[in-house]
């Protein structure tokens, strides 16, 4: 478990990077959004505020995941990061709804913003920063096998694209399309809600022991090719964030003794760890029935 804890600590660095970046961008965008009267920039700032919450929740979840196993948590606390992500998705959804409501009210009242080039420069700067953060977190997520951090990196990427959308809306106003900034604000609200739904769907699936069927099939094929295994009778899997727990039933030659059967289970466990990283595989052996 030392390798898992080491990876969790590395993943927390990615969460800290996101938190610091989002706090800075939130303050800059909301401040200049109000001063410069840019609906899109304000909405983008609120989007980053939800990301502060999401990244903080991720950090807290990763910290809880480091708690050692105990009598009440025999599988560890690794799912804490997923629970944190689930809570963050609810907050993001609420903020997205609020952004849309405010935008619709402005449409009804014909209250359109008149931003300047300052807001445009801030949006472009934000886009570049978020693309860099996305790249760093994506590489780190792959290195430490963190599903949650990889999802966060995609969120970083989307935030860069949101800033691009805000910039386009501001450009539209500057060249005479006064409604484009407000339209961009509305679309940003939609994107916030979309991200919240995606995060909710993925985390809820994992928390209810949903498991990727393609990954399970790959596991079955790897076990099937282990020396001594005649057939894979049954296989089940679940994810706890940084680690897979797999239960598999295989058939072997009924003439094997206990030691030989145990050697097969060790080969299966080693093959699974080599292919999927931190994996705990429980192997049940049954005698093959020869006709």
Automatic annotation (TrEMBL):
Q: Which InterPro entries match?
A: Cation_efflux (IPR002524), Cation_efflux_CTD (IPR027470), Cation_efflux_CTD_sf (IPR036837), Cation_efflux_TM (IPR058533), Cation_efflux_TMD_sf (IPR027469), CDF_Transporter (IPR050291)
Keyword set for this entry? Answer: Membrane, Transmembrane, Transmembrane helix, Transport
One GO molecular function term of this record is: monoatomic cation transmembrane transporter activity
Q: Which residues form the Cation efflux protein transmembrane domain?
A: 16-207
- How does the record classify its membrane topology? Multi-pass membrane protein
Pfam families, A to Z:
Cation_efflux (PF01545), ZT_dimer (PF16916)
Where are the bilayer-spanning segments? Answer: 12-32, 52-68, 80-101, 121-140, 160-177, 183-200
Question: Is Protein biosynthesis there in the keyword field?
Answer: no
Has keyword Hydrolase? no
The GO cellular component terms are: membrane
Where's it found, cell-wise? Answer: Membrane
- Outline the extent of the Cation efflux protein cytoplasmic domain: 214-287
Of which family is this protein a member? Answer: Belongs to the cation diffusion facilitator (CDF) transporter (TC 2.A.4) family.
Protein name according to UniProt: Cation diffusion facilitator family transporter
Taxonomy of the source species: Bacteria, Bacillati, Bacillota, Bacilli, Bacillales
């Amino acid at each position: 478990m030392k390798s898992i804890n080491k990876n969790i600590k590395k993943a927390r660095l990615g969460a800290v990077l996101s938190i610091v970046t989002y706090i800075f961008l939130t303050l800059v965008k909301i401040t200049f959004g109000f001063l410069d009267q840019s609906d899109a920039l304000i909405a983008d700032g609120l989007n980053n505020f939800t990301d502060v919450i999401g990244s903080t929740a991720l950090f807290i979840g990763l910290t809880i995941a480091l708690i050692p196993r105990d009598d009440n948590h025999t599988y560890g606390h690794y799912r804490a990061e997923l629970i944190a992500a689930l809570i963050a998705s609810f907050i993001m959804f609420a903020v997205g709804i609020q952004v849309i409501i405010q935008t619709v009210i402005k449409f009804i009242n014909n209250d359109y913003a008149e931003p300047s080039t300052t807001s445009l420069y801030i949006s472009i700067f934000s886009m570049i920063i978020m693309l860099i953060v996305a790249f760093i977190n994506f590489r780190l997520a792959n290195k430490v096998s963190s599903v949650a951090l990889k999802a966060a990196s995609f969120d970083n990427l989307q935030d860069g694209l949101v800033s691009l959308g805000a910039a386009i809306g501001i450009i539209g106003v500057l060249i005479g399309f006064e409604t484009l900034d407000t339209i961009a604000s509305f679309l940003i609200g939609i994107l916030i809600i979309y991200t919240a739904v995606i995060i909710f769907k993925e985390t809820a699936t994992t928390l209810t022991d949903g498991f990727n069927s393609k990954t399970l099939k790959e596991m079955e094929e790897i076990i099937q090719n282990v020396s001594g295994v005649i057939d894979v009778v049954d296989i089940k899997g679940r994810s706890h964030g940084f680690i897979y727990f797999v239960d598999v039933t295989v058939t072997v030659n009924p003439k094997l003794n206990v030691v030989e059967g145990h050697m097969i289970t060790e080969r299966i466990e080693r093959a699974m760890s080599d292919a999927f990283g931190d994996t705990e595989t429980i192997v049940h052996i049954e005698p093959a029935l020869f006709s």
